[in-house]
Design brief:
Butyryl-CoA Dehydrogenase, subunit A, domain 2; alpha+beta; Butyryl-Coa Dehydrogenase, subunit A, domain 1; 3 domains; 389 residues; single chain
Amino acid sequence: MTFHPTAGYEDIRQGVAAVCAGFPGSYWRDLDARRAYPEEFVAALSREGWLGAMIPEAYGGSGLSLTAAAVILEEIHRQGCNAAACHAQMYTMGTVLRHGSEAQKARYLPEIAAGRLRLQAFGVTEPTSGTDTLSLQTTARRDGDHYVINGQKIWTSRAEHSDLMVLLARTTPREQVAGRTDGLSVFLVDMRGLDGLTIRPIRTMMNHATTEVFFENVRIPADALVGEEGKGFRYILSGMNSERILIAAECIGDAKWFLQKGSDYARERKVFGHPIGRNQGVQFPLARAYAHMLAAEAIVYRAAAMYDGGQNPGVEANTAKMLAADASWEAAEACLQTHGGFGFAEEYDVERKFREARLYQVAPISTNLILCYIAERVLGLPKSYGVGE
């Protein structure tokens, strides 16, 4: 009997793979060359219901778990596609479902599930604070039946292609809050036609549709507030856990793609009269990368199961992201090395996926900060950053 943590999701894998089959490497290479957004791919996923997977059935979605969402994103990457164009609709959903009002859910979720609205933007990071989220400077000031937003966000991917944004802003000055995590609030912002909102694309080493977003006296209705004012940091932490788990699942999919691609090439490529895969120097890096992928996969789906059980698995989610990102990068290195010079040729798709995989050594949180988190929260070691705050 073979055990697999996602054995019960084979129908999902097959359905996602069927969609991905219509978007081969040539489709992604063309987008990459033009730095274009995969509109057709996102539309196909929406049409088949995969992007509405976590939306409850009462609002037109499938009502699936985070584990199922992780399988969807993993399979997209396993098939050689890229879910970065649409994965935020999955990981922001937890914040909306757990903390959003019934009015917000009724207004937006059916439209998102039907593919008529996109929730693809997550506005948290700022140029001056980076991962020091509590130091963010974007403000939301209450003015009657509105909030007035001023500030700047950076690395807000897909903002140009999204209708809605989950935004974190400061509603109480830091020096006036009782607790250090208080005073931040979450908003579900409808970006369509907002005066004072400016979005500027940032060109990066991979086709990631990322941007910086400027808010200049942007007025949003007060009912855009998610949950209770001043408690937003707690809500975002929950969303960040789901983000780490889902991106970790994508990394597992990438690792599987690299390992399949590298192994196929090693069997087919003949040098000195025999397949290069007969050489241990080719075998061992691929085999080691597979072993590390297998171990990372286990913690990814453990973290997902904990999240589905109503927990906030910070340690497990961060560990999953770190190990899965390491596993995908190791597999990428092994695959590229196996291909030799051909790995740098665009037509093999290895160099494109190689660039995409490198991102997750840094985003959405760096490996060093994950290690700091584990050292402090699990091992009880002194905090190594932000000392004295």
